[in-house]
Amino acid sequence: MSRKNDKRDRLVDAADELIYQQTFNSTTLADIATKADVPLGNVYYYFKTKDDILKAVVQKRSATLQAQFSQWEQQIPNAKERLQAFIGHSTEISHTTAKFGCELGSLCQELGKYAGELANLAAELMHRTLTWVENQFKILGKGEQASILAKYLIASLQGVSLLTLTFKDPNLIQKQSKNLEQWLETA
Amino acid sequence: MSRKNDKRDRLVDAADELIYQQTFNSTTLADIATKADVPLGNVYYYFKTKDDILKAVVQKRSATLQAQFSQWEQQIPNAKERLQAFIGHSTEISHTTAKFGCELGSLCQELGKYAGELANLAAELMHRTLTWVENQFKILGKGEQASILAKYLIASLQGVSLLTLTFKDPNLIQKQSKNLEQWLETA
DNA sequence: GTCTATAATTCGATAGAC
DNA sequence: GTCTATCGAATTATAGAC
Questions:
Q1: CA of A178 to nearest chain B CA: how many angstroms apart?
Q2: CATH superfamily of B58-186
């Protein structure tokens, strides 16, 4: 592979992190270029507009999500245990959540208010997550209930992530994760 | 009362609406001044900085919240029915939620990433809401559980509000409200 | 392909006339 | 108290040398 994509990747990585820690709107091209150690004027060789950078970030996150799901599917044969892993992941990142919220949730919140294409990009990430969780419930034989259970699980984690951010308290999502893991056993 | 505060009130009302429909960061002083029908330069007679407008908006929202809680307490003698009213309110505003999300949630999400005073302002609004719900559960004799139940209820509504915004589907929060009203009967 | 310099615009904030 | 005019900084985006 040529080194051509080297800088592009660095720009996307920098944008990804900054958009999460700040917001898309308040992240400037200068921020991204500085963090990626790429001269500002050079950014436009790789991306036509700021929106294009966001699209690349969403694509990267989509691939990361897919990779995580694939990994769980390969390493964890039981669907219920895969869901436990999904819930447990929230606990692992709880301290980051207390600082910046949920990566997916904050993007959906910000872009959801926009009209047009950008809103759909965030919605697709959420949809992909929802669908994967729903599939796990279907494998567990939940049938028609799978969709409802998936929405319940995602909404619970998103809601408590917001409280975790608001009160800067990682403990909130840690406790909720434990509750949800128990709920999963009896659901 | 002098008409002095007339323009100030209009500015706060306009800012309140715009900050909800857009975000605080992307709402410009020109936006606010135009919507309030006040010349841009005159804004600075009433507010020193843009942050000061936000503080006034939060104060207004805090007062609105307090008024709503007081009204429920006066008109609804039963604590469980007050909580039903609280939940039912989400259904009433579901179409607006599908467009712009939860007024409280989106503010906490945006300001939560900031450091300093502004983050605390949003957290106080959330705390006030949480405390009121918790008190209703205490009145119902839930004791130590009251705090957990309150967080569960708020997180559920916040999480599903985000999904409602993301997928532009008022039905999501409507269904969840029904579920929560049933949950409340048996909790 | 890379980078400097800068154009074009927007935004928060101020000066100062009335 | 009110409003016009505008400044200075920040930000997206471009032109053009190398």
A1: 13
A2: Tetracycline Repressor, domain 2 (1.10.357.10)
- The CATH number of B1-48 is 1.10.10.60
The structural domains of chain A, with segments of one domain joined by +, span 1-48, 58-186
Shortest Cα–Cα distance, B146 to chain A (Å): 15
Instruction: Assess whether A38 (CB) lies less than 7 A from strand C.
Output: yes
Note down pLDDT in tens along chain B; length 187 residues.
Answer: 445 569 999 999 999 999 999 999 999 999 999 999 999 999 999 999 999 999 999 999 999 999 999 999 999 999 999 999 999 999 999 999 999 999 999 999 999 999 889 999 999 999 999 999 999 999 999 999 999 999 999 999 999 999 999 999 999 999 999 999 999 999 7
Q: Is the CB of B155 under 7 A from strand C?
A: no
Three-class DSSP labels, chain A: CCCHHHHHHHHHHHHHHHHHHCCCCCCCHHHHHHHHCCCHHHHHHHCCCHHHHHHHHHHHHHHHHHHHHHHHHHHCCCHHHHHHHHHHHHHHCHHHHHHHCCHHHHHHHHHHCCCCHHHHHHHHHHHHHHHHHHHHHHHCCCCCHHHHHHHHHHHHHHHHHHHHHHCCCHHHHHHHHHHHHHHHHHC
- Taking the whole predicted model, whether its pTM rises above 0.85 is answered as yes
